[in-house]
Amino acid sequence: MNKVRPFWALASLLLCSNVNANRVISCSERDVDFIYQKHTAGVLIPANEVVKSFPRGSLSYSEICEVRNQLIMDGLAFTLYKPKDQKQRYISVYNGFDGGSKIYGPFVN
Predict the structure, then answer these.
(1) What burial letters (b/e) apply to 21-41, b meaning 16+ CB within 10 Å?
(2) Which has the closest alpha carbon to 44: 72, 9, 80?
(3) What is the pTM of this model?
């Protein structure tokens, strides 16, 4: 019995880390275009910054997607939050150089 507990503890840990690792998916082409349009239009500015949080587990995997450009290492990563019960979208910009993250929106889809 004592040898079984560490096995189950390790299996649980691996299962939980696997679930969290698959939570954020790459954005579809349509979502990438939406983020790109907002970024190039210059609306990701302090005036549109919001204090909003999406508690862990509150959104399904299809409501969150991420865009990272591996070719252009500018340190920015964009996350699009698209809650199903709302027509509003939020864009989070993560700055890999200073570790900061800001959320902008709401934007109408």
Answers:
(1) eeeeeebeeebeebbeebbee
(2) 80
(3) 0.71
The answer to whether the beta carbons of residues 25 and 64 sit under 8 Å apart is yes
Contacts with 22 (C-beta within 8 Å, 6 or more apart), sequence order:
61
Tell how far CA 71 is from the center of its chain: 19
User: Which residue has 């995997």 as its token pair?
Assistant: 61
Write out pLDDT tens, residues 7-63. Answer: 555 555 444 444 444 456 889 999 999 999 999 999 999 999 999 888 777 887 778
List residues bridging with 89 in a β-sheet: 107
Report how far residue 90's alpha carbon sits from residue 83's, in angstroms, rounded to the nearest whole number: 9
Hey, what long-range contacts does 41-49 have (CB within 8 A, 24 or more apart)?
Answer: 43/104, 43/107, 44/91, 44/93, 44/104, 45/104, 48/104, 48/105, 49/102, 49/103, 49/104
Phi-psi map region of 48: left, alpha, beta (phi>0 left; psi -120 to 50 alpha): alpha
